[in-house]
Design a protein that fits this description.
Layout lengths: L1 E2 L4 E5 L11 E3 L12 E10 L16 E15 L4 E5 L3 E4 L8 E9 L1 E17 L2 E6 L2 E6 L4 E3 L11 E11 L7 E6 L5 E8 L3 E8 L5 E5 L3 E6 L3 E7 L2 E12 L5 E14 L6 E2 L4 E2 L8 E2 L5 E10 H10 L9 E14 L2 E8 L3 E4 L2
Parallel strand pairs: 1-27, 3-6, 4-14
Antiparallel strand pairs: 2-17, 4-8, 5-6, 5-7, 5-9, 9-10, 9-13, 10-11, 11-12, 14-17, 15-16, 18-20, 19-20, 20-25, 21-22, 21-23, 21-24, 21-26, 26-27, 26-28
Length: 365
């Protein structure tokens, strides 16, 4: 059985830098007239997506965050010898709020065969519209535009990206004639990438605006065959029996090969994340989930939402965690995540993928 667990790159903290180490080489572009036969087509794209382990700043309302425009000015592959293979140095503005579940293509190239150690993106500007007020930042400075006054100010406006933001995704992969994937997608968790600030305006008073965090949560996946791209928080929460809580989750799958397939089996396991959502402790054993999935057939060309029923066993989880040195106190808030492993059948083969859902707060009963 082939697993795609290795195809997922966990959450990567970015590094902030203006310079790049090693040598660089501009690689062959797709629109050049005669491509090298020892190359393969490769597309790099970016999306807005909530990621496991991320945490939104509580004070702001996500629905008022209508624009989060990033200026991507450089895209490069990292080679095993420490050098860069530059894909693009053309600046591109992307409003990530328009690409929730969709992909904005940053570059498409013919990439040379070889071993690579990751991907690097350089972001040199951000513009955030929150409640119709606009924050703008780049290498030259930052400003805040207040719509109600139709005026802007750059005085005392923070600029955490003055030096640029470098997103480094470190993961070994091979490009060859046998490579099955031809696209890499970066997920940038916009809602967790903002800190709220307040600008004091005479008469009007404090006005809220959002500032980008210099270390956002990001993730990279290889777009290959059927992959899970998002999931919902627990829905339909009900008390099944004494200290057993039932709920269901909605899990979105996309077939990048556009062939269609089926989810043939799934497992469930709750993971303890602690009081600050920074732990990853198995709260129970991974077990086969015998509940029937609703809509287990994955469409070839459109996203498919799969409904999966789950059970949160409070007593068993409490006992398991106590044995590991974690005594949970009634009335306190703790975070848990659901880890799912899916068995996928498509194109006459079968493989598994594993995802850890976003931490969910639980008031311990």
């Amino acid at each position: 059985m082939k697993t795609s667990r290795n195809y997922i790159i966990g959450l990567i903290l970015l590094s902030i830098s203006l310079s790049f180490g090693g040598c660089e080489k501009i690689i062959f572009k797709k629109d050049s007239p005669e491509p090298d036969p020892n190359t393969t087509s490769l597309s790099i794209s970016i999306s807005d997506g909530r990621l496991a382990g991320s945490k939104k700043t509580d004070q702001f309302t996500a629905s008022l965050l209508t624009k989060f425009v990033v200026t991507v000015s450089r895209v490069a592959l990292l080679q095993s010898n420490g050098n860069e293979l530059v894909i693009s140095t053309k600046s591109m503005d992307v409003n990530l709020r328009d690409y929730r579940g969709l992909a904005a293509v940053l570059a498409t190239v013919q990439a040379p065969y070889g071993t690579y150690t990751g991907l690097r993106l350089q972001i040199t500007g951000v513009q955030i519209t929150y409640n119709e007020n606009v924050y703008t930042a780049n290498a030259t400075g930052a400003s805040f535009f207040v719509k109600s006054l139709n005026q802007s100010s750059s005085q005392n406006i923070p600029n955490p990206i003055a030096g640029g933001i470098t997103l480094n995704f470190l993961r070994d992969f091979e490009l060859s004639a046998l490579t099955e994937f031809h696209a890499i997608r970066v997920f940038y968790d916009v809602e967790s990438a903002c800190d709220i600030q307040f600008y004091n305006i005479p008469i009007v008073g404090n006005t809220a605006y959002l500032v980008p965090k210099p270390m956002p949560f990001v993730q990279m996946i290889f777009e290959q065959a059927i992959q899970q791209t998002s999931y919902s928080p627990p829905l339909g929460v009900t008390l099944l029996a004494s200290q057993k809580i039932g709920y269901y989750g909605l899990h979105t799958f996309v077939d990048f090969a556009q062939q269609g397939g089926t989810v043939t089996a799934h497992t469930s396991q709750h993971v303890f994340r602690g009081e600050n959502a920074n732990l990853l402790i198995d709260a129970e054993a991974e077990t086969v989930n015998a509940s029937s999935l609703l809509n287990a057939t994955i469409a070839a060309t459109i996203p498919t939402v799969v409904h999966a029923d789950e059970v949160f066993d409070v007593a068993a989880i409490s006992t398991n965690l106590a044995a590991k040195g974690y005594t949970l106190v009634k009335g306190k808030v703790y975070y848990f995540s659901l880890r799912k492993t899916w068995t996928i059948a498509t194109q006459n083969r079968e493989y598994t993928i594993t995802r850890v859902c976003e931490p969910i707060p639980v008031i311990w009963p």
